[in-house]
Amino acid sequence: MSFIDIAIFAAYIIGVMIVGWYYYLKNESNEDYYVGGRNMSSVHIGLSVVATDVGGGFSIGLGGLGFVMGISGSWMLFTGLIGAWLASVLLIPRVIEMGHVHKLLTFPQLLHRFYGKQVALLAGIISFIGYLGFTSSQLLAGAKLATGTFPALSLDNALIIMGIVAVAYTVAGGIKAVIYTDTFQWILLMGGLICIGIPLAYIKLGGMDAIRESLPPEFFSFTNLSGVQFVNWLVTIVPIWFIGMTLYQRIFACKDEKTARKAWYIAGLFEYPVMAFMGVLLGLFARVAADAGMFAEFDYASGTAMAETDPEMGLPLLLRSILPVGLTGLMMSAYFSAIMSTADSCLMAASGNFVTDILGLKSTDKKVIRISQIITLVIGVLAILIASQMQNVLDLMLNSYAFMVSGLFVPVLGMLFAEKVKPYAALSAMLVGGCSTLIFSVFTIPIPFGFDPIIVGILSSALVFVAVNRK
For the whole prediction, is pTM greater than 0.90? Predict the structure, then answer.
């Protein structure tokens, strides 16, 4: 990258750090640090929700899907639209008032109201582990983007730089720094994709005729995936809207139910169709570029070879190949903004789970804020170390989703819809669901028809919940 590009990117990094420092000076209590004083607007919350949910992992992951399967990869974020709108109707009206009345900071605190201390503690542990993995996936996405853009930068060094920036402003500023930087970062990403990335790639590749000639017809079909694949995405992603700590923090941060529901409608529409098609289109363009030999200098002889090794590198290499001086810095800032908008939120979620649900700290003075900041820093360092041992962003992200969903989704449904629930039923369902998914994933036990282990986890969790609750 040129000096101009580096200067633009550096200015972006300095900007988000300033926001973090500003809210470091403004925060007065853990309520400010974790739920922003409960008076946030629907636009800021909605953009923050979609920035968190899509963010870097799905941006890089969608690019990888577009690279190997074309526009059918967009169906992944259609499940996000379904999840957001279902949660706006079924979840938000039932939990936001309780969150405000009882000054709740986390999702497990809500479970505590229904099931008791033991269930809340286990939920906090499951959510903490899941969001630790999710934070790692976002940092890995940023490192991959950086190495594709800066050839002299190793993956480990990129990971350290990315981690330091994301962790620093999150530790300092808390949820308000996260939400306001998310809003800015999401606008930056959308502007970068619409005005720079997609049109320049389209022109560079020779227009639609050249793109169609380069790829088989199935890349332009919405049916280039199996029903099993769609069900796997549906079962993994829709439930996260009901158990995601990052989302409950934002529900509790909204000033009222109307604001929260409007924010969730905004988030759903941005997920699909807006971000879904932008992500897979750039991945599809990257496949055309790879097949045309544009990535040969990076040791990728063809798109087929790259699809078998690391298709998620296609998007950053495409951007590196097509963008002129100045625009490269802007586009890299846009994609880094997407990555950090998810990493910061997941880091806040993991910190909130550990401080509030596992340690049980509830004081509202500044002493507890400092403890929270120290723990957020430690968790951030741990996430960097985990990311350094992983390779695939989408796999790490979906596995983290699956672990949380299989352990927490059924007890949440019980909380929302069951007339009578027993704490032991929820506790048993969480243990069985989470452990089932973990065992099937770690030992790669095959499941009929190609379904993901999360199916086993949710079904076993539901069976146990019903059986124990009937006793």
Answer: no
Inter-residue contact 468 to 425 (CB < 8 Å): yes
Tokens of 176: 């308000």
Match 């040969």 to its residue by tokens: 296
Q: What is the pLDDT of residues 202-249, one digit of tens each?
A: 999 999 999 999 999 999 999 999 999 999 999 989 999 999 888 998
Nearest to 350 by CA among 97, 150, 32, 136: 136
In which element (H, E) is residue 188 found?
Answer: helix 155-192
Strand spans (E) along 79-211: none
**Residue given tokens 């629907």 in the structure block:** 42
Residue 319 structure tokens:
């951007």
**Residue-wise DSSP of 48-116:** HHHHHHTHHHHHHHHHHHHHHHGGGGGHHHHHHHHHHHHHHHHTHHHHHHHHHHTT--SHHHHHHHHH-
Q: For residue 38, give Cα distances in angstroms to 114, 175, 210, 299, 370.
A: 22, 11, 52, 51, 20
Confidence class for position 17, pLDDT limits 50, 70, 90: confident
In angstroms, the Cα distances linking 430 to 87, 95, 166, 397, 418 are 21, 20, 31, 20, 16
Are 343 and 164 spatial neighbours (Cβ–Cβ below 8 Å)? no
Q: How far is Cα 45 from Cα 24, in angstroms, rounded to an integer?
A: 20
- CB of 59 within 8 A of CB of 332? no
CA dist 266 and 84 (Å) reads 9
Tokens of 463: 């069976």
